[in-house]
Amino acid sequence: MMNSNLGQTTRHRVEASLKRRYAKERRFKAAGIAATFTGLAFLAIFFVNLVSQGTSAFQQTMISLEINFDRTALAPDGDVDPNADYEAVVRDSLRSLFPDVTDRRERRQLSSLLSVSASYDVKDMLAADPTLLGSTQTVWLSASANVDMVIKGNINRDVPQDLRTVSDLQLLWIDELLAAGRLEKKFNTALFTNGDSREPELAGIRGALMGTFYMLLVTIALAFPLGVAAAIYLEEFAPRNRWSDLIEVNINNLAAVPSIVFGLLGLAVFINWMSLPRSAPLVGGLVLSLLTLPVIIIASRAAIQAVPPSIKEAAFGLGASRMQVVFHHVLPLAMPGMLTGAIIGMARSLGETAPLLMIGMVAFIVDVPGSVTDPATALPVQIYLWADSPERAFAERTSAAIIVLLAFLLLMNLAAVLMRKRFEKRW
Amino acid sequence: MNGNSMDDTNSDKPVGKAVKPGHEAFMVADNVNVWYGDNHAIQDVSIEIQKNQVLALIGPSGCGKSTFLRCLNRMNDSIEIAKVTGLITLDGQDINSRDLDPVALRARVGMVFQKANPFPKSIYDNVAYGPRIHGLAANRAELDEIVYTSLERAGLLQEVKDRLNNPGTGLSGGQQQRLCIARTIAVNPEVILMDEPCSALDPIATARVEDLIDELSENYAIVIVTHSMQQAARMSQRTAYFHMGKLIEIDDTDKVFTNPQHKLTEDYITGRFG
Fold first, then answer.
1. How far apart are CA A194 and CA A205, in angstroms?
2. Are A114 and A142 in contact (CB under 8 A)?
3. Candidates B72, B103, B184, B196, partner chain A, best to mutate (most A CBs within 10 A)
4. What pLDDT score does B4 carry?
5. Is the ipTM of this complex over 0.90?
6. Fewer C-beta neighbours within 10 Å, C or N terminus of chain A?
7. B155: CATH
8. Under an 8 A CB cutoff, do A317 and B106 touch?
């Protein structure tokens, strides 16, 4: 009797509370969904903004000109003269399209429709193919950044002439060229083949990309072996005592140290004390390996801890030495986790800017670096430099460089995921 | 548990015969004590392990039988808070002495674990691992020979001979455990320690492993920890009963199960606790 009563009350109470419990669950779920979508929304805004600003930089306006490779002007001695006045050749070609422009000041305005690189492009073209001598060719030459901005609609034609970088006359010529089909947007190869430049239409990210590449090379070559060795020692060999606790706390703290502090350390130790070259990817790589080392150690230790103890016991039980257990069993099983940690550390280094400012990688460097000791800059620093430039054309290039940086980050994270999938062993 | 049996627990000497006459004592544990920090896990245990015999260690959970087993090949070394005292000799040699390397000891005293733990390598490499690290085979042909005979003696060869390159982790639970046994005997140890080798297996796989252990006892000294009293009764020649870190009774298996001398042993095997 007693029991059945009790059963009744339990049932009632459970049923009464069910509604409340489910309501709680629904509220929690709704909060989770709201949080996720807020995050996604911000991400979407960021990407839309970036892509809408940056994609136009992947195209560059070109002007098509009839270039006369005149023998008397360009090869007076029979051979192609590298010191000939190529500028005049290009200038004359452009002027021939507008024969009624005779005023000197107007002529200078006309010439400035072309990029300063136009004459060099013609020179390179002839040097590559001397048989062009004596012929007349239709050549697509880079337009100046101002023309590019007009074509891309980034310059407002409605404001008075004084308030824009392009004169009314230039606008007229641009419209004429456009009508004649001599202005076209083509893929911006300069963005990927050139180093930095003061002229936006000539500025490219190649120098920064190579700088970043050399830097990451130094970083992975130093930080990965050191990090893995440290992790193995700390996990498998080091005795557990006050000292190892101290080391562990310090490594965890190092991972949280602001990166600019590592830059100052690099400046003091590598440049001032060890006299390594300033602005060099070598020093950048050294600083970034200091920065990445704790990340790799922590990830590698976690990977080692995840190796099932039963596998280690089996090996020990067969009489394997500690070293054999580590190299035959622990390391192969922990390697995917270690590699993932390393790639995530590398991805973090890829985006680091602050420490590189400290070691002089923020300098304006036009040449593409050819080794780890050449002066160089890095992709995030290039973005910082361009974002600081007043020219309108640098704004879209900044976004384009960010898109390239994000693409590399995405690739590296994808590589981490794939590597994990590929090497992960099940037991 | 009544007051009497508590008193019995505290008596120093275990009851029964520690040695079966006519058999050579091969491994001797004398007054072994183990501490895990402040926890006195094993108290004054003395046992003799004999060749060509199966010794079963039984007792309720946490009684120290696995701990004792792990002392015999120094697997407790890796647990930093564990402290082992007392003398354990293998063929007259102190296994805890500085002269004896734990690596050399474990080649002579093999171990099979509760949960089958094949390496995530091929079946062949699993069995070949021990011989390889100890340099037991001079060439590939010898290694093949060792692998095949070990798998044969573990009763696994017929089932896996066509897929030696498949991962050992792809076998069924019972096959995995026999693979682990093959891996252990490939090193040709003198003593095999088994820590509840059948606890994760179904009855059919268990029967196969028991048969295997029975056959192996012709060549090896085997110490097996088990929770199954039927298993101890079926397979072992001698049985030791542990209770709360102490050895309560050790004698011929028939005698322990039919006529236990100690109240605690009787309670345990008749299922009154445990």
1. 7
2. yes
3. B103
4. 42
5. no
6. N
7. 3.40.50.300
8. yes
